[in-house]
Amino acid sequence: LADLWLRKEFVSRVSQENLKELLEAFVTDGILNDLEKESILEENQSRADRVRCFIDTVKKKGDKACRIMFTHLQKIDSTLYSSLHVSTFPSAQKGENLQEWSSSTQHYSTDDWREGKNNYPVTEESISKRVALLITNKTFNRYSTRHGAEKDDYKMHCMLAELGYDVVKYKNLTAKVIEEALQKFSKHPQLVHTDSVFVVIMSHGSLGAVCGTDCKPFKTENIYKLLNTENCPALHNKPKVIIIQACRGDEAGLVVLPDEDLAKTDAVVHKEKDFISLLSCTPNTVSYRDPSYGSFFIQYIVEVFNEFAHEDHIDELFRKVMQRFEESDFGGIQMPSKDRCTLTKNFYLLDY
């Protein structure tokens, strides 16, 4: 796929029917999930754009995924496969066993450099039992509607599902119900089996709080209290990743569209450990959102995780999100910030 000629020919000659068969094969193999397949088909208007999106998605899965794609293409349309001269390209060589991909290499669980005392333990079994909480508020009693929030919700759900998380999802909650949702999540029966959790809240906000749909504040401090070792021993020694898309003040920069339109064990252990948080902006500042595409923060998180989650640990992924802002046109007006990081080891998501 690195060869531009091959990419151009692939895009121009793969039919809509061929694409659908390739997507079905990839879902069957476990390389893509249903949300990824639907995203490729529904978020792109033309056949060519769908094929381009498919190619880009496969490239992010690595060389093995590329080779498997060619193997499937040969079975689906041998004439097209032969006319593309695929076998002359390095990425198409060394055919792979599809069962080997889906059963053992998908999560790189045997990589020695990711094992050991410096990394949080992750196994294929623990990945299959992952659980995450996603709360998205779009409409409010008195505050403006967060147009584009549905885009963030969809992208974040897809990303978490791709990483192996069963997503517990809520929309448009009051401040009180946000607290109740977190309390319920802290007692989720799957927590004892998961290797980690994500908690993602997207709403209007202020310093130290996010807004419920009733425009009352939910203090983000309560997230840490409800999921700490004292109140949620099932998550002891497990990474707890907190992502909050919300303003933390009303200091605006350039005119875009601001996201805020109104100003237990027997041993002795620390009760708050193994957390890491990424907030969409620094204290007292505004977080920006495009009404058509969603927030820049969620867009960059999804882009970075899709590209690097198979090789970088969570702290490095967050750093790359911040770097993406620095290199963009928005670096001068918005900068995410890591907060309350108490991870004692590296946490590799190991999604592929």
What topology emerges from the helices and strands here?
Layout: H1 4-13, H2 16-29, H3 34-42, H4 47-61, H5 63-76, H6 78-83, H7 98-105, H8 124-128, E1 130-136, H9 149-162, E2 165-171, H10 175-185, E3 197-202, E4 205-206, E5 209-211, E6 217-219, H11 221-227, E7 240-245, E8 275-279, E9 289-290, E10 294-295, H12 296-308, H13 314-327, E11 337-339
Parallel strand pairs: 1-2, 1-3, 3-7, 7-8
Antiparallel strand pairs: 4-5, 5-6, 8-11, 9-10
Fill in the keyword field for this structure.
single chain, 352 residues, alpha/beta, Death Domain, Fas, Rossmann fold, 6-stranded mixed sheet, 3-stranded antiparallel sheet, 13 helices, 40% helix, globular, zymogen
* Domains, number: 2
Widest β-sheet, arrangement of strands: 2-1-3-7-8-11
Please report the distance between the alpha carbons of the first and last residues.
Answer: 19 Å
- Name the average pLDDT: 81
Low-confidence stretches: 87-113, 252-258, 260-266
**Architecture of the largest domain in CATH?**
3-Layer(aba) Sandwich
**Radius of gyration, CA atoms, in whole angstroms:** 22 Å
Topology as a string of helices (H) and strands (E):
HHHHHHHHEHEHEEEEHEEEEHHE
Strand content: 5-15%
- The CATH topology of the largest domain comes to Rossmann fold
**Major sheet attributes:** 6 strands, mixed
Number of strands: 11
Label the overall shape: globular
GO molecular function: cysteine-type endopeptidase activity
Family: Belongs to the peptidase C14A family.
Pfam family, one: Peptidase_C14
Protein name: Caspase-5-like
